[in-house]
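tool=predict chain=A
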Amino acid sequence: MDKTNLSATLLGRILLKTKGFFLVLVVLFAQLIPNLLVIPVAFFVQSNAEFTGQQFRQAGFFTAGMIVLGNIILLLWIHFTYRQVRIRLVKLLEGLQPSDLEEEKELQAWKQVTACGWRYGIASMVVAIVVEILPLLGFMSLSLKASTNQLLYVLMGAIVSVSVIIALGVLLIDRLLAPARALLIPQEFERQLSGSKGARILTKLLVVIFILILVSVLLVAPVGYHSTITVLVNGLIGTQGALRSLQYQILVAAVVALVLGFLLSLLLSRGVSDPIHQIIAVLDKVENGDLKQRTTVNATDEVGELAVHFNRMITRLDNLQGTLESEVAKRTDQLKATIEVSGVASTILDPDELITKVVNLISDRFGYYYSAIFLIDESGQWAVLKDATGSAGQTLKSRGHRLPLGGKSMVGTAIATRQARIALDVGAEPVRFENPLLPDTRSEIALPLTITGRIIGVLDVQSIQEAAFTEQDIDTLQGMANSVATALDNARLFRETQKSLEDLRIVQKEYVARTWFETTRESEGYDYTSPETIISSEELSMIDVPLTLREQIIGQLHLEGQQDWTPEEHSLVEAVATQAALAMENARLLEESRQTALRERVAAEIIGKVWSSPNTDLILQTAIKELGRALHADEATVELKPD
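tool=predict ok
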């Protein structure tokens, strides 16, 4: 409870003003109000004991003096015995936080303030017997020469008044100390439960019921006894007066018993019902979703323990909801980061750019201290750092940092064992490379980059917090590692495909250049000119458009004219040049196909004639004759020279 809440109630404002003397003030109030009961009890005793006026006055003054003395003793006992409560109230009201105070003294003050009621009751009983009842009986017996019956009436009246005064005082103290208990309550729920030393509800009920029965008996019994003695002593003469006196005293006793019973039951029931109503009110707010509500622990009995358990339950629900919300937010961020990494992996086909993007995304989105990707080199013996975050990562990359496979490093071990390596406390990890450029690392995880059962590298992530990687974090990072491995393999395949296509383009260009070079060489080139009359070149506008075939220039289209060529005419010429190059290539391929078909036909004819010859001489003659004819050779010979 803070000062704002204290100012909202009368008792809270009194506590703010009195501070350490609040407990003494509460006890003083609990003494004054119930002690007023002594007055009607004294007149009730006088009506039965029939003291003389002088005896009654002297006994009254002596009783008042003893009551004042007993109350002073109780106040001094409270002041010195509950010193820790006073000191802690002063410190809290002066602005110190509960965390600034010693926990042991906090628990001690809580135990004292919760046990104050019943301890006061026991102390009051002892003081009443020793300081008030016994001295009063001795004074009346020795000084006032009271009879046995008178002493008996005084004793019964003292028992009634002391019992009711103590019961009312205990209930009042428990109720009036509510703001002090709310201020002194420990922060931890276990301390609240272990330090609560108040009387149980059953004990309170038994005591109150016993006191009510005792008061009823002790108020009625003297009246009946006195009336009986009066009738026996005075005979029939005093019977009518005795009956009227008996009726009057019984009526007064009944009223007093009812009033006392009402006061005791009211205080007891309010001490139980008010905290329960407060719990119900807080529960209504909690049902509407306000988990920040807490009930004030006012009672020191089972209801108070119920309030503590209720607050602990709501606190756990609040923490659970906060944990779930933070976990959902964290998982959402991880999902977004995973989607972002997957998007980067699917759009970037350059492995180096991909690795740089991935390590920076992981560090930025998850807030990790260091992220790096190692790839296995061609020798298969080293894990080479490809990229890493931070100045340490750039320094390591510039040095060509690498780690041996299966060596004393988490990266090498993850590759060798094909399993993730997790160090929630790097100080306790036996197999780990201690990098001097990363002195703040407290936990580390190395995840293998696997594609179709083949490990190509490791994703290494480090954090400055111990046990920074939960099961969900590991699953998320492993999913990212798998996506990165797939993307790197795709990038590798894309690069190889691009290289193959580039080689194919180069081969095609060389093939086109060679074939057309041979074609033009055989025909001594192609040069066609329009047969129209050529005028002076100074009056001409010219267009030169290359004839391009598969990125290879095989010729040039040159146009001259007197007009200026428009962009549309330029486009027309370029389109015609493109189609002309394709048509020329098709014509060349057609001619090449014809030549190939002719050669195959001639070869087939020659082979057929050779196979039809019956002997070796005829085979040789046929072969040389047909080849010479087909190839237009001037001379053809064949020789057989076996080894």
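The two ends are 119 Å apart (CA to CA). The chain has 19 helices and eight strands.
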